Backbone:
């Protein structure tokens, strides 16, 4: 062996060993992570399912290919003699066809192609499991009268099996043909064709291929329930009366051709096969292309609605069921001409009025409550708490450690991994009040968290698992962890929770390899009870454990049992619901899962929030013990679950069209709605759903709802509003309130126009915008209160050099009246003041900054 060859082998060996070690360390540390979360069985089950599906597919593929190659080899060796034939190929073939060599050769080829061509099957593990653990939807589609569960659970498996069978037969056929061609290499093309046409094995494989293809045509019929051809998604008139008959004819022709291929062994009439093959090709062109086009143009287009009405009805019915909109409770909103001012002011909605917009409030939190530059409030969420015996709507944000903001002096390995380990506490403020300087009042503030209500006390404010916890840390080391800053010094702590993975020398070695960080091996800061925490971003955690669930990108923190928890909504979705209109790649969705994560310990629990969903039933059957019923959720946490905004927005988007259940109205788009626009800052944008505490018409108690108004597609009057309920037994219910058609109710953009047309308001806002400050128009709230509609908009002022928006004014609109005041009450009283307003030009004394005080109700 030459020196160069030795060096090459040595280097290759080293790389192979390093690759095995790296993969092995990743795999073992993943097992450690899943074990620490309590979901190792889910990981191992998923892995074993993948391996079983792949192994079974390899075995089936291998056996089919191998026995076909062995049969072809025996056939050829019995009819051919390589004796006295010159050439390297003939010498090779003569040796290969003898004894054990040919079997070993075929064994290797069969195993190789089986491994290569079954690589896609491992991704079908969940499809196979869902097929084995399928449930009925108790909804029957009208075309083939099959339960929707067939399309969700069984049809994907049958399509996967069809793809597997076609791949296996085609690969085998190609290998067998190649074997014959190589064997008869000295003969010409015409001789090859004659030999192959008379070879029973080749003909049998072709017949089998055609038989499977005939089954493929049958599967294609089922897929017509997803056809986009007609006026609405799903099978149309043309699909039913042209495409399906064509597919049936093609199924018969292909089956006949397969039978003729087999019968030709006896009949010896190859021309009949050619005629059938030609007829199949011509039929495919005519029946799958020309004929459907003619039907569409000559029968459907001249009388489209009459032809498509039954299929349009199926689309409407099944779309509503797929998006859970068939259960929307529709009511008339009882508008009153006369307003009871005192009743409005005393209503729970006004007492919990959402004056703060989450966007300027996030800037305010980060300016006033960040305390140190390495903390960050990534988002602000809306929730409700019972404080001092009253239901209060609040805005809340978690103070997380932002590793991108750690000062340069604190960026050493020890500080980054062992000292800066966690965020600390939350900030909470009521939605309806501000200080005299236009800043938030606080229910919870500062470090450590300070609150006047014992219900908001937090014993474990450390946030080791959150939205910004994207780096690994090591706790319980000789280096004390920064707990929180206190004046000019810091308070340190040692982690005493259950989260993390214990470290010893071998686990440190594995993690050092995984992270490419060998300081873990040489550091002297470790103790016997040291633990590592990695992959502790809460979205990463739930996605790793349950990749088959789609999780909301907006987790929100809650305070319960004197601890901080995160709640993340999980969705089951698919694009396989028959006839249902797709939206953003899906046509079925349910909020079937609530994930709860302890911010201190990292413990995760998955709860089934919609036990009527067959998909979550299937997952619950596959992964036994993974999901818990919602009734087992801690009661304090359960009071904070809310209807998710992403789901509601999806449903609202669909409902803008599918509230029209009359097929003729739907076809003509006579009553199409839209989600209205609003102005935020100075930009026009789609209105976002918003949470509020509301006493729905006819209900006795206020409740926490998510709501959104609708306007007609062509005009901007408000037509209806929808509310998603979040409390108690009403959780998940949707209510739609329709305004009387003979009454004009202003929509959001019409109210925007009235605000802009009010001379006092427009002049004041323009003046502020020109005096070294920026006016931020907060989100416009449409509030149904006591059978009246009020529009409320907060106005924030922000200095050009400041990131501190202040709540300066409140604009209130009712009917034709618009007023702006320092408080809601002031603007409200001005609207209903019988004395007409005087037209005045707002002025600011020379040299003074705009006034930004906004005196609000006390807590």
Residues:
């Amino acid at each position: 062996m030459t020196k160069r060859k030795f060096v090459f082998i040595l280097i290759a060996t080293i790389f192979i060993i390093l690759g095995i070690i790296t993969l092995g360390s990743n795999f073992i540390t993943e097992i450690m992570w899943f074990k620490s979360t309590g979901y190792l069985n889910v990981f191992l089950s998923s892995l074993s399912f993948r391996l079983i599906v792949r192994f079974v597919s390899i075995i089936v593929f291998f056996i089919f290919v191998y026995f076909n190659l062995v049969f072809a080899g025996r056939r050829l060796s019995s009819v051919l003699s390589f004796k006295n034939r010159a050439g390297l190929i003939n010498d090779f073939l003569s040796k290969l066809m003898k004894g054990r060599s040919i079997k070993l050769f075929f064994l290797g080829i069969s195993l190789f192609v089986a491994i290569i061509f079954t690589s896609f099957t491992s991704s079908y593990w969940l499809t196979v499991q869902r097929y084995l653990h399928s449930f009925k939807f108790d909804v029957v589609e009208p075309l083939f009268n099959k339960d929707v569960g067939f399309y969700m659970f069984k049809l994907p498996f049958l399509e996967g099996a069809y793809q597997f069978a076609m791949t296996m037969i085609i690969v085998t056929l190609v290998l067998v043909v190649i074997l014959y061609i190589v064997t008869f290499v000295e003969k010409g093309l015409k001789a090859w064709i004659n030999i192959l046409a008379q070879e029973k094995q080749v003909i049998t494989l072709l017949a089998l291929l055609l038989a499977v293809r005939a089954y493929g045509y049958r599967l294609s019929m089922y897929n017509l329930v997803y056809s986009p051809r007609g006026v609405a998604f799903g099978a149309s008139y043309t699909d039913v009366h042209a495409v399906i008959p064509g597919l049936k004819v093609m199924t018969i022709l292909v089956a006949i051709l397969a039978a003729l291929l087999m019968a030709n062994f006896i009949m010896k009439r190859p021309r009949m096969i050619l005629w059938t093959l030609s007829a199949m090709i011509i039929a495919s062109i005519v029946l799958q292309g020309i004929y459907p086009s003619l039907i569409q143009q000559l029968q459907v287009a001249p009388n489209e609605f009459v032809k498509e009405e039954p299929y349009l009805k199926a689309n409407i019915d099944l779309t509503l069921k797929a998006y859970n909109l068939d259960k929307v409770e529709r009511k008339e909103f009882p508008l009153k001409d006369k307003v009871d001012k005192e009743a409005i002011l005393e209503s729970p909605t006004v007492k919990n009025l959402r004056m703060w917009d989450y966007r300027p409030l996030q800037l305010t939190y980060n300016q006033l409550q960040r305390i140190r530059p390495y903390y960050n409030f990534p988002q602000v969420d809306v929730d409700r708490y019972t404080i001092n015996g009253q239901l209060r709507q609040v805005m809340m944000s978690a103070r997380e450690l932002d590793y991108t903001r750690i000062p340069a002096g604190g960026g050493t390995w020890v500080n980054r991994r062992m000292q800066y380990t966690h965020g600390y506490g939350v900030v909470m403020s009521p939605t309806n009040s501000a200080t005299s300087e236009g800043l938030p009042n606080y229910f919870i503030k500062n470090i450590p968290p300070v609150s006047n209500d014992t219900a908001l006390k937090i014993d474990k404010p450390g946030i080791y698992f959150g939205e910004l916890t994207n780096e690994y840390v090591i706790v319980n080391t000789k280096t004390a962890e920064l707990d929180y800053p206190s004046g000019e010094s810091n308070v340190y702590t040692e982690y005493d929770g259950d989260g993390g993975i214990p470290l010893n020398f071998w686990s440190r070695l594995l993690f050092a390899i995984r992270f490419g960080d060998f300081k873990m091996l040489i550091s002297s800061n470790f103790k016997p009870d040291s633990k590592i925490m990695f992959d502790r971003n809460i979205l990463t955690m739930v996605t790793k454990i349950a990749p088959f669930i789609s999780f909301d990108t907006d987790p929100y923190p809650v305070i319960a049992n004197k601890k901080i928890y995160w709640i993340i909504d999980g969705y089951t979705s698919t694009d396989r619901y028959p006839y249902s209109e797709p939206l953003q790649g899906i046509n079925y969705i349910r909020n079937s899962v609530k994930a709860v994560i302890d911010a201190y310990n990292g413990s995760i629990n998955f709860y089934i929030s919609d036990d009527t969903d067959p998909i979550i039933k299937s997952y619950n059957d596959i992964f036994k013990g993974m999901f818990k019923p919602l009734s087992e959720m801690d009661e304090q946490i359960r009071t904070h679950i809310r209807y998710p905004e992403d789901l509601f927005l999806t449903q609202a988007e669909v409902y803008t069209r599918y509230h029209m259940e009359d097929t003729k109205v739907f076809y003509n788009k006579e009553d199409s709605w839209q989600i209205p626009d609003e102005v935020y800052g100075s930009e026009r944008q789609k209105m976002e759903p918003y949470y509020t505490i509301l006493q729905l018409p006819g209900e006795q108690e206020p409740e926490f709802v998510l709501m959104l108004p609708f306007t007609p597609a062509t005009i901007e009057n408000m037509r209806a509003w929808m509310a998603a309920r979040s409390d108690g037994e009403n959780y998940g219910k949707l209510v739609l309130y329709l305004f009387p058609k003979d009454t004009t109710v202003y929509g959001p953009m019409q109210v925007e126009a009235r605000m802009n047309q009010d001379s006092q308001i427009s002049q004041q806002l323009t003046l502020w915008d020109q005096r070294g400050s920026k006016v931020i128009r907060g989100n416009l709230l449409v509030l149904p209160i006591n059978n009246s509609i009020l529009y409320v908009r907060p106005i924030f002022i922000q200095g050009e050099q400041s990131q501190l928006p202040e709540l300066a004014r409140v604009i209130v609109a009712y009917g034709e009246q618009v007023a702006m005041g320092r408080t809601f009450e002031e603007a409200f009283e001005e609207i209903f003041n019988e004395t007409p307003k005087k037209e005045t030009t707002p002025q600011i004394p020379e040299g003074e900054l705009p006034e930004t005080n906004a005196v609000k109700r006390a807590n």
Notes: The chain has 25 helices and 31 strands. The radius of gyration is 35 Å. The first helix runs from residue 3 to 37.
